Amino acid sequence: MQSTSNTTTTKTDIIFDRKTIKEAVVEIVSDSGEGAQKCGQSLGAISAKMGNGVWTVEIIPAEIQPPARSKAGASGIRVRMGSNKVTNMGDHADIVVALNEQVLYGRIDQNAYKSGTYLLIENKWATHTPETQKAYEESLAQFKELGYIIHEIPMEKECLKHVSDARKGKNMWVLGLLCNIYDRDLEIAANQIKYVFRKKSDKIIQSNLDLLHAGYAWANENLPMHFTIPSRLSDEDFVVMNGNEALSLGVMAADIEVCSMYPITPATSATHAMAETIESAGGIIHQAEDEIAAIGFAIGASYAGKTAVTITSGPGIALKTEFIGLAVMAEIPLVIIDVQRGGPSTGLPTKVEQGDLLAVLYGAAGDAPKIVLAPSTIEECFHYIILARKLADSFRSPVFVLTDANLATGVQPFPRPTIKPDWFTGPANQAPWKKGVKAYDWDAETGLSDRPIPGQKGGMYTLTGLAHDEESHVAYDPSINQRAAESRSRKLAALHKTLKVPVVNGSETGDLLLVGWGSTRGAIEEAVERAREKGANVSSLHLHFLSPIEPGLKGIFSKFKKVMTVEINYSDTIGNPLITEENRRYAQLAWYLRAHTLMDVDCFSNVYGQPLSPIQILKMMEKQLDLTLID
Amino acid sequence: MIALQPDFCDIALPEGEHYSIEDYASSKARWCSGCGAHTILNSVQKLCNDKQLPPEKTVFVSGIGCSSRFPHYMKTYGFHGLHGRAFPVACGVKFRRPDLNVFVITGDGDCCSIGAGHWVHAIRYNMKMVVLLFDNAIYGLTKKQTSPTSPFGTVSNTHPAGSVLPPINPIQATLGLPNVSFVAQTVDWKPAHLNATLKKAFDHPGLAFVRIVQRCPIWMRDSYEPTVKDPDAITVLNHENGIVLDEKALKKFRHVNEHDPSDILKAREAAEMVKETTPIGLFYQNKEAIRYDEYGAHNLGTAVEDRIGAINSMMDRYAI
Ligand SMILES: Cc1ncc(C[n+]2csc(CCOP(=O)(O)OP(=O)(O)O)c2C)c(N)n1
After folding, report:
1. Distance from the CA of B64 to the center of ligand 1, in angstroms?
2. Which of A83, A283, A617, B181 is least surrounded by Cβ atoms within 10 Å, i.e. has the fewest?
3. Domain interval for residue B93
4. What is the value of ipTM here, to two decimals?
């Protein structure tokens, strides 16, 4: 934390010597169900409203009710707030509020804290039972040894002054505490509480407001650390939301009327977000009996009308594979959203991984070319759905949008999109079909064709997943299959021709180029920036179109001594038992780029299920470049 | 599509437009000679003609199998999709297109095995469509494997010593499902009954499930021939609210039972007769069952301003 001193007057008129800092990373961790996430989300929203850059990331245990006071049970949230735009979760937490000391072990294991991190720990466990007392004392001793600065906080005791069940109110008391520590505007905080509890009674709202003020006052009197994070208010309108909420708004703004899904973490919350609004926005969510039915239904709706969407995660993609092949074969426009989670199999349902890229690109019988996009920010989660729908229509093709658990639950402010009437296409075309035009009138150069929609007189054809000719007649002549496959593939080439060469972040030549895709962009670019400040000759490139792949990569790569992907998925590490240059399995984008460019693209990846932090990437670069990049 | 209401199925034909049987016929059917599918195709084309369905407003959705080739032989819109998955596609087609006449063509493997989960839920969705289960009690296209409806002991390529499990009774299974609204059975070789059944099914306001006992002369000749030849093998379920045959046609059947299709318990009883005879007719009908397609169409044609307004007010919640 960089700091200078200044003096601030808070709403309660208490004078502090506040340190001005550029940014802070705060965590609230607890057992499941104690409202830590609500507390952190509110802190994030309040900070965003004050004009700070914000990124929040949820800390989610795999089980809904893991054992209380356990390492595996760590549930909570990290909030990173700063004077500038914040694009990732940052490195180590500066202040952690823990509703019990045991859950901290889960985070310590994940290297979330550093020597000097403040731990603000609920002290009721010191007197709760003999067992908790023993565990509490042992843990605190260990934490001290690790260099953490400990403050024992009587949260329960203080909350009980205001509510009878402290479990239900502690989170808002903690919010008050943090608002004091970081000089958050109490009026904005109060409005946030009113918003969060808008469906609750006035009595509940009032008691939460009381807790907020109580927490604020307690910190004021009892804690020594007080900071302020200057912000830049802009004239532009901003919205603050997570990636799944952005996806859901994108679906509706993209003129998609049917969203067909089967619940799966971490995708489902996108449909939760849209459920209240979609019907007044002219659409409907269909909760199907399984993922196969979900995509089948979406395909049926697309075939007979406007392009539909299906939304899922890895295991759902596996089930949908056969239908995806059909959508490619029969050229049915469709948007498929894959909010990736840890795999294979049920994997890490709540954790981040970018593990579906190759499955999505190649997981089909035969050759099944389709368009694959990967938004890299929350804002792009919104805009890419609109892009995907347009591409699906223009290219008569399924279009994938790959996001992940990090984007799904990460919260970030971005400029409020203006919804344009011309994004809405009106009803499906029902004009008589053009005489003499075949159902698949493949353009010789682009492979593109218009599709007849049921209801169009004279356009009748039978769509089939069998190899077929221009009239959708079953191909009994083998040359038809070759020609049709060429046409479908050529559509990607036609789209490729319209793409621009991506822009390198940093200089266009250097010692090392990091290549990423999806949610890792913020961490990669921050790491590159910090490394460049230390004199390292590194740059990064972030890909948004994965199929067709963006043009000019070979030219870009050739200007760097080394090219390396940074991804959250599995790759072998040379030096591990039995792993050699010959048998090493690479990260997914690395495989793909190696094949595409015939260049030696290395990779840095892992499957800890955590978003990448800049410091992890910096450490890797220190090794690669033999430089010191971390203070 | 924008201003269409759910009752738009009976769209008035433009003045002077008339469709002949040939207007519904596409390429020559490639089924084996003697296959029951040929007569079903004729009967369906007759239905389209009798009802004067505009071909462009009619969609046949099928799965994979011999029977599922059906859409290719109709000059309407068709969707020959994946094995077992006709139901979800058909439901997706109908969801936002109340104006389309939707038919599902499915085989016994397609519906009762690989697609069984979708079958259960399609019955529950009860969207207006006609479902024709072509039940030849064998896997035809893949050359004689046991089907879930193969009679116990059926000799097939997967069970050369005879099948070892009792079959599913699709009528009984369907009658056991929630929100079921129309269940009928007919046979491909009694055209009068087949025609009358299809007509009744088409007029039903919901999902009409019709199992058609179908001859497969290649793989199942021994199994069907006795039924086809034996006048005692069939029992007609007769009722004024059921499949109504004219007197002459009815007289051709030796066994006629009165059965009231409004009584689901009696319907389930009648479905059990299958062990001794093949009951044909309408087992059950409930015109009041909840229809998911009505829900699907309820907000069709929402004005763009209203749509944008709704999205913006959701966005307001995230505004800072
Ligand atoms: C996913 C998948 N599994 C298996 C098949 C192979 N297959 C095609 S049709 C069929 C069964 C056909 O039997 P049925 O549904 O009774 O129809 P019929 O051919 O008798 O009309 C099978 C197993 C397939 N096409 N797709």
Report:
1. 5
2. A83
3. 2-7+14-316
4. 0.95
